[in-house]
Amino acid sequence: MLHEIDVSFVERDLNALLQRIGHQRANNPVDIASIVVPSSKLTDAASKYAKDLLDDAIFNHSVRIYYISQMLRQDHFPRWKVEDETLYVAALMHDIALSDTVQLNSQVSFEFQGGLIGRELVLNNGGTEQVANQVFEAICKHEGMPHKGHQSVLDACLEFSTTLDVLGQVPDTLWAQKQIDDLAMKLPRIGFSKRFAECMEREVKLKPTCFATTYITPTVLGWIRNNKIYEKYD
To answer: 84-88 — which CB contacts under 8 Å span 24+ positions?
Structure first.
C-alpha cells in the first residue's frame, strides 16, 4: 500500500484511489464556512490577477476549486500534505487562460498557457522556484483522460475538484448536499456550466491541435452542460 503517512502523491484514477484506501462517506462533513482562505502577498496577487481577467462565472469556479480541495482533504484525505497558499494560487490560476484576454490571443493550449502564467505570477510575487514549478505542473495536468499513473497531491486536488465542479462525475460519498448548497450560495455559479462548455468549444475551434482535443467529446460536453451535482443551481 502506498505512503500511509505524509502522502505526497496518489493515483490519477480517483476510483482506484478510493478503492485502495477503502473509502467511506465522511461522518461529519466539514462546514464550508469553516474553511480559511490564506492571505499573503502571493495569494493577494493571485486573487487580483484572476479577478481582473476572469468573468464572474469562471472566477467563482476557481475559488470553489480551493474550497472543494480543502473539503476533500479534510473529509477524505487528511494525510495529504499541501500548503494552503500553494493550493489557493493554483486554484485561482488554473483556468486563467480561459479568459477572453488570454484565450483569444494565445496559440498555446489553455492548460499549458495557464501553467506558464501561474509560474510567472509565483516568481514575481516572492514565491520560490519550487512552488512555481508545483503550480505550473498542477495547472498543466488538471485536465485530460484517461487517468493513468500517479500525480502529486496538489495535482490531485485540482483534478478531483474540477471533476466535481465541472463534470459532476465523482462518487456521491465524496460530498454532502449541504456542502454543495453552501458552495453554490457562497460562490454562485452564474450559468457556469454553459459558460465553461462554450470555453471548451472555443478552445478546440481556435486551436485544432490543442490538448483539449484529446478529451473534449460530445459526452464530456454533455457532462459539463448537465452537471447533476449542481443541477438546481445551473
So the answer is: 84/36, 84/38, 85/38, 85/40, 85/42, 85/43, 86/131, 86/134, 86/135, 86/154, 87/154, 87/157, 88/37, 88/38, 88/43, 88/46
Ramachandran area for residue 216 (φ above 0: left; ψ -120 to 50: alpha; else beta): beta
**pLDDT tens digits along 74-110:** 999 999 999 999 999 999 999 999 999 999 999 999 9
d(CA 203, CA 212): 7
Q: Mention every residue, 6+ apart, whose C-beta is less than 8 A from residue 185.
A: none
d(CA 203, CA 206) in angstroms, rounded, equals: 5
Bridge partners, 56 (sequence order): none
Hey, what's the cell of 172?
456521491
pLDDT in tens, 32-62: 999 999 999 999 999 999 999 999 999 999 9
Torsion angle in degrees (nearest 10) through CA of 188, 216, 101, 165 = 20
The CA distances from residue 114 to 8, 12, 205, in Å, are 23, 20, 18
